[in-house]
Structure formats: structure tokens, C-alpha cells
Design brief:
There is one protein chain. The protein is an alpha/beta fold and about 400 residues long. The chain is built from 14 helices and 16 strands. The chain has one domain: Rossmann fold (3-Layer(aba) Sandwich), CATH 3.40.50.720. Helix 4 links the parallel strand 7 and strand 8. It is globular. The N terminus is likely disordered. It comes from Lupinus albus (White lupine). Pfam families: Epimerase. One of its GO terms (molecular function) is UDP-glucose 4-epimerase activity. One of its GO terms (biological process) is monosaccharide metabolic process.
Length: about 400
């Protein structure tokens, strides 16, 4: 049975993270019922002072004026696992800060062990900001949300048409005006010409491709977002942590290949700001695919160096040939081992979006959280590392 938690009052003071053209002239207090629709009336009361609320380590004061004709009712269908889980959390926070009504439907059960971990353990922030949280099966989305209807629906869960079709069909039949989908830049075909840009060839057998095609056939107003690797408070997929684990223990950091391969890491706040722009500028975002990435690439060796810089410690990088040492690089390393990066061309040209990702600073935030949860003291197994280092005759500190 789905659990619904909601709040009927939202105080918008300041929050979010280097927003684009989303700020307005004054801080307002918005009061609305939990059955808020875009046509509902709002009472707007002046708020005399501007305050800022911490989100991660970024402080931005901004203001919001609510207009009944501008504000949308948005449903976010959110995955309960992996690196994409923080997308729904950041997006919900940003939408609420901009005066929209938000319900976030998370796959699974509210009382499960997964919900005790970030970002789900911070969902109270969504409720306290005026949003609603529900849990259940996306295939039964209509009953999970109790028959509510929405202006905009985002699917941040399914990776193939079987998983997403029920959400698309329900959204269409219930009268949603706009459908947004979190796809993946991983569907691009390998190419000699980089970075990947919107319109480049994709893998025909990739599950996300079938979803993108069905959405375009079903909705008049739609947008697709293709993120890569993400960073941000509450992320529960090991990426930068993999490097921290080795750096804080003075262990060598084994990186496959030359280490000069380029990839792309973006802060989740950038994707949430891009999604919010699509909600607020549907005409500009319509029928568009957006690479949801930072506008700067980083080398694999560079990630290790930046993580060491964030930790204030030295780093010993060991580059190796996976075949020569007999390991599967996919199991031994958290990133793809070839060049893999895209350019956010459509986001900039169609929506006027700009990236705010700053890896040196963002990694400091992540390292602070790494220390806070005590992971630097936890026992970590390095079996594959030891196999690699033994084959290379690289000594490991005891």
C-alpha cells in the first residue's frame, strides 16, 4: 500500500545551487492545498528578509514570485538505487524552491532498508518544503498517487520500454501535458569524433532508445535527458569514494590504460537546474534531447589527483594494462576505460543553461561527507587491487 505524506504550506526563502534565470524580485510565502493544480489560486505574502539555506556546500539566495498560471504540478518517478537516485531528490528540491507542486514516487516500500540510506534518508526535506512523497510500483502509478493528475511527469526509473511504458501510457491518459525522461549518455555508439553531441548515432539495441522513441510517438511535449557520471550530496554509488578509499589508506591507485582517457562528471544540481528549465520553458525544450553533463572533461588520472587534492593527501597512481595483469577492468575500476564524454550543446543553445560543476570544490564536499560517515575507518577489501599490484610488482604499505 502506498504511503502519502504531504504538506499544505511552503515557505520559500532561498535554496538551490547557482540557478540560471530562475530568480525573481522578492521572497514570497506561498500557501496552497495539497491538491494544488496549475490553475489553483495562491496567496502571496511579502517576506521582508532574504535568507539562505544550506544544500551541500553551496549557498545561493534567490527569490520567487508564484503565479497560478506559471506554476506546475509535477510527478517524479524515482529509482531506488544507483547513481541516478539523487536526481529526483535534487529536482524535487529545486522545483519546490521555484514554487511548483511536487510529488516524488519512489520505487519500493517506505520502510525498506534502502530508504534508510541517502538520498532517501533526507526525503523529510522534500516534505518540509511542501512536497509529497509516496512509494510503490510505477506500473501501478495511477493507484499509487491516489488518482491525482499532473501537468508534468518525469520518469527517472526505467531503463527499457517494459518498465517505462506503464508510466507513459498513464501520464498520457490522465492528461499530463509534458513528459520528461532520464535516459543515458551511455547509449551513444563509440566514435573517433568526440565529444558526443545530440544527434550522434546511438546503440539501436539499448533499452533507453526504445523508450525515447515511444515517448516521441506518444506525447506532443517531451524532452529526454542523457546524463553521465554524477556527483553530489546523497549519491550512493561509489565513484569518487573508490579513489578516497585508496588515498586515505596510502594505497596505490590502479588506473587502467594510460590514465589520459577523458570522461565527464557533473554535479546533480546541474541536471536539476536543466530539468527545471525544461518545465518552465516547455516550448524551448520541446522535442529535444539534452546531454546533461558538465561542459568540461577530466582525465582518469586527473580524477585521482583531484580526489587527493580534496583529501589533502598525496596520491600514487599506477597505470596498467588490464589484459596483461589478467583482470576485468569493469570490475576493477568504477569508470569506463575508453574516452567517454559529451557536450551539453542543446542545453546551452535552446535553454540558455550553463554548468556550475566545479570538481575541485565539489570533491571537497564529497570528502567531508566521506569522513563524516566514517568510511575512512571501515574495513575495505582490495583483492583485485592486490592482484594488479602483485603482477606489476608494486609494493603495498602494510
Amino acid at each position: 500500500m502506498a504511503t502519502l505524506t504531504s504538506s499544505s504550506s511552503l515557505l520559500l526563502s532561498s535554496s538551490s545551487f547557482n540557478l540560471l534565470p530562475l530568480s525573481h524580485s522578492s521572497i514570497s510565502r506561498l500557501s496552497f492545498s495539497s491538491s494544488f493544480h496549475s490553475s489553483s489560486s495562491l496567496s502571496i505574502l511579502p517576506h521582508s528578509s532574504v535568507s539562505s539555506r544550506r544544500f551541500g556546500t553551496h549557498h545561493v539566495a534567490f527569490t520567487t514570485i508564484a503565479s497560478a498560471s506559471q506554476k506546475k504540478k509535477v510527478l517524479i518517478v524515482n529509482t531506488n538505487t544507483g547513481g541516478h537516485a539523487i536526481i529526483g531528490f535534487y529536482f524535487a528540491k529545486e522545483l519546490l524552491a521555484s514554487g511548483h507542486a511536487v510529488t516524488i514516487l519512489t520505487v519500493g516500500e517506505e520502510g525498506s532498508d534502502k530508504m534508510k540510506k541517502p538520498p532517501f534518508s533526507s526525503f523529510s526535506e522534500i516534505v518540509s518544503a511542501g512536497g509529497s512523497t509516496v512509494w510503490g510500483n510505477p506500473a501501478e502509478v495511477g493507484s499509487v498517487v491516489g488518482g491525482q493528475t499532473f501537468d508534468v511527469v518525469l520518469d527517472n526509473n526505467g531503463k527499457d520500454l517494459e518498465a517505462v511504458r506503464p508510466v507513459i501510457d498513464w501520464a498520457k491518459s490522465s492528461g499530463a501535458k509534458q513528459f520528461l525522461f532520464i535516459s543515458s549518455a551511455g547509449i551513444y555508439k563509440l566514435t573517433d569524433e568526440l565529444p558526443h553531441v545530440e544527434g550522434d548515432a546511438v546503440k539501436a539495441d539499448a533499452g533507453h532508445v526504445g523508450v525515447e522513441k515511444y515517448i516521441a510517438e506518444t506525447f506532443e511535449s517531451w524532452s529526454v535527458f542523457r546524463p553521465q557520471y554524477m556527483i553530489g550530496s546523497g549519491n550512493n554509488k561509489d565513484c569518487e569514494e573508490w579513489f578516497f578509499d585508496r588515498i586515505v589508506r596510502d594505497r596505490p591507485v590502479p588506473i587502467p590504460g594510460s590514465g589520459l582517457q577523458l570522461t565527464n562528471i557533473s554535479h546533480a544540481r546541474d541536471l536539476s537546474s536543466l530539468l527545471t528549465l525544461a518545465v518552465e520553458k516547455p516550448e524551448a525544450a520541446n522535442h529535444s534531447i539534452f546531454n546533461s553533463v558538465s561542459d568540461r572533461a577530466v582525465t582518469l588520472n586527473g580524477i585521482a589527483k583531484l580526489c587527493a587534492q580534496a583529501a589533502g593527501r598525496p596520491v600514487n597512481i599506477v597505470n596498467y594494462d588490464p589484459k596483461a595483469v589478467g583482470v576485468d577492468a569493469k570490475k576493477a575500476f568504477p569508470f569506463r576505460t575508453q574516452h567517454f564524454y559529451a557536450e551539453p550543446r542543446a542545453a546551452k543553445t535552446k535553454l540558455g543553461w550553463r554548468a556550475t560543476t566545479n570538481l575541485p570544490e565539489d570533491l571537497k564536499e564529497r570528502f567531508e561527507e566521506y569522513i563524516k560517515i566514517g568510511r575512512d575507518k571501515k574495513p575495505i577489501k582490495f583483492d583485485l587491487d592486490d592482484k594488479i599490484l602483485e603482477a606489476l610488482k608494486v609494493p603495498v604499505p602494510v
